[in-house]
């Protein structure tokens, strides 16, 4: 504190000196140093005075004066700030404890500590003073400083007693003592007594600037709002300067607010805000926002409530609740949801918490977030079992279950309902059907069929009956269960006898294939014919083309070669993509009809024009075979040589060897004949042609005169084809049953035992395949890959294509993308199935993309589109990766087009990712609001894909940050942490939320409670 310093001690000393002079008018010669010291002291020449008193101590004899001189030396030391000043005072007190000047000594020591703000030490010295021994001014000075030292240590009772003594008399500290006594009474809640003291203090010019603020606080504490307003207005009209003008305006504003006059309140709230440097305290900001919303300034109120809503206390809960209501008024449901969610999580006002929880659940439902709404409604019922809103919640919960995309949970809910109304049965039929289609798209065909069967239990909607049966037939067809597939497709025809449904023609196509695969060509032919006569070639072109080729195959199988050639001619005339197969099949038919020349021309079309065709080797072999059967042995041998030498992995190699052996035999090239038979027996001892090769070798060796060689090959054949295989077959089938029963660990053990017991069995390769695939299904890729690689050395193994496929998939899973690409290419070139080829292309698309080879990825994406959708989801997959590849090459317009196409085709996981990328592109372009809209579309349409749902909410939060909507961003991330089932997404949300909160904390410092009295220690005290 800065106090007005008056040298009272000099006055006291002078009085003492005067008294001494009256007692002895004549100083001795030795007393002259004492006398000189006194004179110098009176003129405040402390250094010279100290020197004179020190001289007197050496020469003087008067014990009283010697004691006084020692005190004056200490006093001068203090005034000169000498290092030994305080020590000299303490020494004087120690040597003369009963001296009259001891009180002055303690007084000086107390003042020193007081000036140093060492109030605890000052108190210790002031407590030693006998105030009666001090003069009036010194006594008042000591008492005030003693009181203030207590005050500074919050020893208010001791402080108050001293201040009260001082304020009752007229002294320089009267007003200050009234002020501090008033403060202590204020702190104790004794507002009337505080008021009296403050009014007295106000008479002082200095306190007249401070007291008005304190008086309005007393009025406010006593809820005397009218008195506060009257007094405040009088002060403002007087033009008196105020020490804290902003606080004065604040209390005026708060009083009008409490009186319900929000217009007047805002006048002074605005004045308050304009006179402070720091941001408005959030508690005050809440009342400002409330006043604004009550006076029609709602958009301004929203901005203020957004800041209040960041707090986690009662005020924050009220702020978020009001914010939610205001957002609802302006139909901003997304923002309202975030506000109500935070109000729901507050634990300060149960009524508001209940209201907010209900509103949040209802908005979740209205925004299409049905699964979240279900969780909220269930939580509401559990938390508020006696709520007056229970009936409304039950109704909305039912509606949410009807609309949810979380079909599994919805189905459980419906199955737990004991009595199912028609509305419930219809909903159950739909939910089970939709869940079945999801399983189908995820290639979980067994589960899909189970759900389709559940849907068919309640055939309320005939369209769903048709759809469920159709997809059930498709699932059975994929699983090669053609009898079951035929029954399912037939059920489509029964439900749609007039053939008007979307899936009727597709069911005809499906049942035709099922009969075709069962080799019931007559039945297949009728359905293929029906389909091709009615299919729209523009919309069903791929199916139509395939059906035409299969129709020709049916005529071929029924030996109606002329009709088969007509259909194949139509395929070739229409320039379809399966022309290579059409030429091949036409060549076969011409060969059967004996038209060798035409057969050769057709085969040559394949060989010369389609070197990459899957039917290239077929054409080579068949051309050779027909030439062989026609006696053109040299030509035949040339074709067979091509097959054996250039295509050693082909399934036709053993057949080509056999026919080449016969051709050479007919040409009497017995050595070549014997070589081919030996190669068959050595490389393909378990193949169906091996037995013919054995007989042919026996005859050829006899002709050559080398019959002794035959025993060696006979022994090999016997080892590869043991006669007694009954028990062997039983054990093999037992192991297979374990595999198909999904007991893979047991299956591995069983197949290993089988291999050990029957090392020469023809089922050895099958056993190894099942072992490798069991490891695959147990998610043990290393061991699985080892087994499949071993099998890949047997190109004539019946499951060779599946082996190559598995190797490709496993290498991809393990991140070895170049190897995966090599095997996917092998898979595509080896298989003749369009479904297999598309699966291979999908693998190539993904692996090239992961390697950053976007042109190659796009190339195979287009190959998928050119071949039609033989695999579920292939079309959306292809468009998605075309978009992703374009995006990586900064071809944003193309990427956007492909992503939009992906979303328009289907509502699968590929479409969900595409929608996310569209939203992300908008975000990166700074178009935050449109990005948010796009992401909410994703949430609505693809809510069953938790990864993309979680990523969408993370991006929504980033969009909000881009819009400076910090509260919305926080609320969104908190929602992700609460609801997302994906731990990776939750962790990302936690990290981002911590970053935002830390940034917000640093950006906006919080002030204290501005409705409390200021700390008076910062005030100046003046007379």
Describe the structure.
With 1023 residues, the chain is mainly α. The protein has 54 helices and no strands.
Short overview:
The protein is mainly α and 1023 residues long.
What is the 3D form?
A: elongated
**What structural category arises from helix and sheet content?**
mainly alpha
Question: How many strands appear in the DSSP assignment?
Answer: 0
Radius of gyration: 50 Å
Termini separation (Å)? Answer: 13 Å
| Beta-strand content bin | under 5%
Poorly predicted runs of 5 or more residues: 1-26, 1005-1023
- Please give the largest β-sheet: none
Number of helices: 54
Name a few traits of the molecule:
1023 residues; mainly alpha; 54 helices; elongated; disordered N terminus; disordered C terminus
